From TrEMBL:
<keyword id="KW-0805">Transcription regulation</keyword>
<dbReference type="InterPro" id="IPR015300">
    <property type="entry name" value="DNA-bd_pseudobarrel_sf"/>
</dbReference>
<keyword id="KW-0238">DNA-binding</keyword>
<dbReference type="InterPro" id="IPR003340">
    <property type="entry name" value="B3_DNA-bd"/>
</dbReference>
<dbReference type="GO" id="GO:0003677">
    <property type="term" value="F:DNA binding"/>
</dbReference>
<feature type="region of interest" description="Disordered">
    <location>
        <begin position="78"/>
        <end position="110"/>
    </location>
</feature>
<dbReference type="InterPro" id="IPR005508">
    <property type="entry name" value="At2g31720-like"/>
</dbReference>
<dbReference type="GO" id="GO:0005634">
    <property type="term" value="C:nucleus"/>
</dbReference>
<feature type="compositionally biased region" description="Basic residues">
    <location>
        <begin position="91"/>
        <end position="100"/>
    </location>
</feature>
<protein>
    <recommendedName>
        <fullName>TF-B3 domain-containing protein</fullName>
    </recommendedName>
</protein>
<dbReference type="Pfam" id="PF03754">
    <property type="entry name" value="At2g31720-like"/>
</dbReference>
<keyword id="KW-0804">Transcription</keyword>
<keyword id="KW-0539">Nucleus</keyword>
Length: 243
């Protein structure tokens, strides 16, 4: 049963002339808690602490949880801390870390033409102007025997400079070219170079004799290959490297 406060409960109260209405209210709550604790033989509640600064009374108080009064400390609300002299010091905040740290995107240069191919092309065949045309992953469409073609999408081509203006015009006019291709086994094969336009996309293709190259070199889906271009007697030639 709740007991009401009487004058006797405040006989030991020392009134501060600077108290305001809120200070009186806090003192009444404190006295009520003391009376409640005494009636239940419980330890007295913590004292109400008041500290005066240049802005008035700065109150810091804590209620005993046994009477159902709780004060939760919101970390976001703690914007200032007292340094003991009345000055306010901003709390030190830890720098935020992003969940994912960006890694420096340093492009890895493609490996150079294998020495054995360079020796064959440059020293034995007299080839010049080696250029990497494309490095790509073999897809099923590249080894599909029904299609019999190796695609070289424009979006993946490193450079189109392996063709001169006359050769590029021939392909634009839908005139395919017969070129020499060194396959991964370093065997030379005559193959057809063409240009296809499919909707808004364009690509070069090696066709006609592509299926034997796939079979003889055991090319499969997921293999990474490079297609290099070079000139021999001013004619475009190619070398297919399996990485």
């Amino acid at each position: 049963m709740m007991e009401l406060l009487s004058r006797d409960d405040f006989k030991d109260t020392k009134v501060d002339p600077n108290w305001g209405p809120f200070d009186y209210l806090l003192h009444v709550v404190h006295v009520d808690q003391q009376k409640f604790q005494k009636s239940h033989n419980a330890p007295p509640p913590p004292q109400i602490l008041c500290k005066q600064d240049h802005t008035g009374f700065k109150l810091r108080f804590k209620f005993n949880n046994s009477v159902g009064l709780k004060r939760k400390r919101n970390l976001k609300a703690v914007e200032e801390e007292d340094d003991g002299d009345g000055d306010r010091v901003a709390p030190k905040l830890k720098p935020k870390r992003s969940k994912k740290q960006e890694k420096s995107a340093c492009p890895i240069p493609p490996p150079d033409l294998p020495p054995k191919f360079r020796q064959l092309i440059v020293e034995e065949m007299g080839g010049r102007g080696l250029v990497l045309v494309i490095q790509k992953t073999i897809f099923f469409s590249d080894i599909n025997p029904t299609a019999s073609r190796f695609s070289i999408p424009f979006s993946q081509v490193k450079t189109h400079d392996f063709l001169n203006e006359a050769e590029a015009k021939e392909l634009d006019d839908k005139n395919p070219m017969q070129v020499l291709l060194l396959d991964p086994s370093m065997k030379g094969t005559s193959i057809t170079l063409n240009k296809w336009v499919m909707g808004s996309s364009s690509l070069y293709v090696l066709t006609n004799t592509w299926n034997p190259i796939v079979k003889n070199n055991q090319l499969k889906k997921g293999d990474t290959v490079q297609l290099w271009s070079f000139r021999m007697n001013s004619l475009p030639c190619f070398a297919l490297i399996k990485l």
